[in-house]
């Protein structure tokens, strides 16, 4: 039986900690593979300070369905609940 292949994880420690907290494998991997994964003091702008186009692109990256019909507030809510 072949070993199940898994995408490379940039921050294995964070990935395992997120899985232990109940995150899905996909979401834990996505978080652990972000720039500066596991580092504090990130400099990301808040969703409210981003343009609708930036929010749309982020929603596209994480696979949120129905994003093309969402307004800015809906995109923010979807990204926060993803």
TrEMBL record:
Record SUPFAM superfamilies: Rho N-terminal domain-like
Record domain Rho termination factor-like N-terminal: where: 51-79
InterPro entries linked: DUF7218, Rho-like_N, Rho_N_sf
Domain of life from the UniProt record: Bacteria
Annotated Basic and acidic residues bias: 16-29
Coiled coil: none
One Pfam entry name: Rho_N
Region of interest: Disordered: 1-46
One GO-annotated biological process of the protein: DNA-templated transcription termination
Name assigned to this protein: Rho termination factor
